[in-house]
Design goal:
The chain has helices at 2-38, 44-51, 59-70, 72-82, 84-103, 108-136, 139-170, 175-178, 180-194, 208-227, 237-259, 273-302, 308-314, 316-336, 341-357, 366-394, 400-437, 450-454, 458-490. By secondary structure, the chain is an all-alpha fold. It has 3 domains: 16-206, Growth Hormone, Chain: A (Up-down Bundle); 207-261; 266-501, Growth Hormone, Chain: A (Up-down Bundle). The radius of gyration is 23 Å and the shape is globular.
Length: 501
């Protein structure tokens, strides 16, 4: 009996280092995928200065967002069918190939197309890493691991623009892409050596029609949200035709999933209360997260006179909040075996933080703003990865991949819609208030960066800043109202016992 116990202990000590090593590699993969959603934004002016193509600037970001979102459910399904290890390795290789080619792009068209290729790999990085943990860690212990994933995702979202600015300032914009290569190669080597998933290989039949309908639907919906109010006016017939085509494709996808032998996203998942609620709450969290991250640096640069690098550093309290609450909530869930409380508390904190941010004035002290951002981060960290854990625990093991990708997909679409909607609310509010505040006959420059705003004549400067702050109030009040919907939905979630295997 003693020898049996001894061998079990020694087996545990042999097993733990590979799990830790694998987990570190998966965190690195998650970091790469999340960083590339935001790191390019601060380099865009420099890229345009070298490559030209100002009219296509937004497509450098949109092309990556588009392809990485489209492939999320496909990767989830492929992971369930072929095994997570081979699919994760393939997505890393595609991502690294796209990164190298982006670094050598010679014009804007090449860069946009190669960013789309990079997105085809990047979409798999986050969803497969989260699903891969389900292959090696049981739900009862998974909370603390998922908590760290949430912390890394939040960290990457906030640090991305800051790191991009630093690389552009001290090296070259091309290193934004090259830096992925050594990190990706290390992750690839570790995953190849120590990742041994408990996955059954089954005979598979790929749902090509479902994939085509879903790709068309997501493409049209993301084009509608990213172009509306920016590249095309909201009154544009082309914009609304895009949305109509997206809705028709969505209907085609639902019809196809009812008939397919191996559907991309089984409709039976939508009969699972936890999956539906997690998807809806995730959509709203993505919506509010990306909205907040978009407008807080803008406020700091325009109103407080911060440089882009300073504005990136000043968002650190939000990043710290996400990191602390993600890790702490994960550990507590692993200990108590219950998770329902965290989305409820998290959405309440996010709504409170949004309401506080809606009170920002021109003379609000920075330390108060830091407190509001920390509160927002604490709330977001309690929600993001807990939803993934709840979904993985609720569905059959064979559906873990598609369920994880579904939860991730809703959050990605929420982010895309949030940026577009907040952008429209802000720009329309600012334009209306400026028309009322600026004397007749006075024209502002067509493009006003933070530096140009600081050099406006005193009367115009004060009027602009007041209009800017009032428009921010509207954005955060709307965000608070939307997050309250998520708070109500969170009460309908049920604690399911965390599986021990």
């Amino acid at each position: 009996m003693a020898s049996l116990h001894q061998s079990a202990v020694s087996a545990q000590t042999v097993e733990r280092p590979p799990v830790r090593l694998l987990f570190t590699a998966l965190l690195l993969v998650m970091l790469l995928g999340a960083l590339d959603q935001t790191i390019v934004s601060t380099a865009l002016p420099t890229i345009v200065g070298e490559l030209g193509g100002l009219e296509n600037l937004s497509w450098v970001v949109t092309s990556y967002l588009l392809t990485s979102t489209i492939v999320v459910p496909l990767y989830g399904k492929f992971g369930d069918l072929f095994g997570r290890k081979i699919v994760l390795q393939a997505s890393i290789l595609i991502f690294l190939a796209g990164s190298v080619l982006c670094g050598v792009a010679q014009n804007m068209t090449q860069l946009i197309l190669l960013r789309a290729l990079q997105g085809l790999g990047g979409g798999g990085l986050m969803v497969i890493t989260m699903a891969a943990i389900a292959d090696v860690i049981p739900p009862a212990e998974r909370g603390r691991y998922q908590g760290l994933f949430g912390g890394v995702y939040g960290l990457a979202t906030v640090v991305g623009p800051l790191l991009g600015g630093f690389i552009v300032e001290h090296l070259s914009w091309r290193w934004i892409f090259y830096i992925n290569v050594p990190l990706g190669v290390v992750a690839l080597g570790v995953i190849g050596a120590v990742f041994k998933p408990h996955a059954l290989h089954v005979r598979h039949q790929i749902d090509y029609m479902g994939a085509a309908f879903l790709a068309a639907a997501l493409t049209c919906i993301i084009l509608f949200t990213s172009q509306g109010g920016t590249l095309l006016p909201w009154s544009s017939p082309q914009l609304w035709c895009t949305l109509a085509l997206g809705l028709i494709s969505l209907a085609g996808f639902v019809y196809e999933e009812r008939l397919a032998a191996e559907p991309i996203m089984p409709l039976s998942l939508f009969r699972e209360r936890t999956f539906v609620l997690s998807g809806l709450i995730g959509f709203i969290v993505g919506f509010s997260l990306f909205g907040a991250v978009t407008f807080l640096p803008l406020y700091l640069q325009v109103v407080k006179g911060s440089t882009p690098s300073q504005a990136g550093l000043q968002i650190t309290p939000m990043m710290a909040g996400v990191l602390i609450s993600s890790i702490a909530s994960g550990r507590i869930i692993s200990r108590i075996g219950k998770y329902r409380l965290f989305p409820i508390a998290g959405t309440a904190l996010v709504a409170a933080a949004m309401l506080l941010l809606s009170t920002l004035q021109l003379d609000t002290p920075l330390h108060m703003m830091y407190g509001y951002m920390a509160l927002l981060g604490l709330g977001l960290g309690m929600v993001m990865q807990v939803l993934v854990l709840a979904v993985q625990n609720a569905v059959e093991f064979r559906f873990v991949g598609v369920a994880t990708s579904g939860a991730t997909l809703f959050r990605s679409i929420g982010g895309s819609v949030g940026v577009a909607m907040f952008g429209a609310i802000f720009s329309n509010g600012l334009r209306t208030r400026l028309e009322a505040a600026i004397p007749p006959g006075v024209e502002l420059p067509r493009s006003l960066g933070p530096q140009a705003i600081q050099h406006l004549p005193a009367a115009l400067h004060d009027g602009y800043l007041n209009a800017f702050a009032a428009s921010m109030h509207t954005v955060y009040l709307v965000a608070a109202g939307v997050v309250m919907i998520a708070f109500v939905l969170a009460w309908f979630m049920k604690d399911q016992p965390l599986r021990q295997h």
